[in-house]
Amino acid sequence: MKILVAVKRVIDYNVKVRVKADQTDVDLANVKMALNPFCEIAVEQAVRLKEAGQADEIVVVSVGSKSCEEQLRTALALGADRAIRIDTDDGPDSLSVARLLAEVARTEQPGLVLLGKQAIDSDNNQTGQMLAALLDWPQGTFACAMTVTDDGVEVTREVDGGMQTVALTQPAIVTTDLRLNEPRYASLPNIMKAKRKPLAVIEPAALGVTVASNIRLLSVEPPAGREAGIKVGSVDELVDKLKNDAKVI
Ligand code: AMP
To answer: What's the domain range around 36?
Structure first.
C-alpha cells in the first residue's frame, strides 16, 4: 500500500506569535518555522505502518513556496521515501490545497491519505474533509488509533465525550489527532540521507488546478492581554470582588 501524507510548514509551536503593526496578518519575519505538529504525527503513523510491513511507500506532499522544502526534507528524514512540492505562494486557502491534493491523489493512487486534523497557524480543520468530499473517499477524522485491515482501515476517533470507531474501505482519508502517536526525532544520519531522497516540484497548472482564493483576510488581532492577579485578604473581600468587580456571582 502507498501512503500519501500532506504536510504543512507553519510557525513553530514554541514561538510567541506576533501580529503585524497594521493588523493585516501575523508577522513571519525572522520567525522559526516547523512541520505542523499534527502533520508530524501523520508522518510518524505512515512510518510505523511501513515498519510494520503494512505500507511499502510513503510520499509526502506540501503545497507552498520553495521554503516548505525544508519541512519536506524533515519528513523525508523521519522516514518518508519521496516528496512532492506543489509550487504556490504561501498561504493558499484550504479548498485550493484540497483540490491540488486531490489531483496528486488521483495520480499517485494511494491506499491511504494522512493529514493533520488541523494546521496550527490557520486552525482551519477542513482540508482533510474537503479532500474526502472532492475524491468521494471515506474519511476518519481526529484519529487517535488506527488499524489497517485486509480491505480497509479502522479508525478510532476522538469525539465529544468519548471514542467512536469506524471502518473505512480503501482508499481512505485519515486526519490525525494528538494522541495517535508520539513522533520520533530525526537522527543525524537520516537527516543526511534525506538530502538525497527525490523531491519533485509540480506546478498547479500541470495538475489542471487554478489556485484562486475566495477568502480575503480582513484583519488579525492579538488576544486581549490578561490583567495581573491580586491577593485578597479575606473570604469576604473575595466574595465582594467576585460580585462587584468580576460580576460573576
Ligand atoms: P487545515 O485544514 O488548514 O487546518 O489543515 C489540516 C491539514 O491539511 C494539515 O495538517 C495538513 O496535513 C493539510 N494541509 C493544509 N495546508 C496544507 C498545505 N499548504 N500543504 C500540504 N498540506 C496541507
So the answer is: 2-245
**Residue 224 has what pLDDT?**
86
- Give the Cβ contact number of residue 133 at 10 Å: 14
Nearest-CA residue for atom 7 of ligand 1: 116
Facing residues of 60 across strands?
Answer: 5, 83
Work out which ligand 1 atom sits closest to the CA atom of 36: 10
Give yes or no for residue 119 CB within 6 A of ligand 1: yes
Q: Check if the beta carbon of residue 120 is closer than 8 Å to that of residue 37.
A: yes
Average pLDDT over the chain reads 95
Q: Residue 206: give its domain's CATH number.
A: 3.40.50.620
State how many domains the chain has.
Answer: 1
- What mean pLDDT do residues 101-121 have? 97
Q: How far is the CA of 249 from the centre of ligand 1 (A)?
A: 43
How far is CA 126 from each of CA 57, 94, 117, 162, rounded to the nearest angstrom?
26, 7, 8, 21
Number of C-alpha atoms within 13 angstroms, CB side, residue 140?
Answer: 31
Of 86, 93, 63, 124, the closest CA to residue 213 belongs to: 93
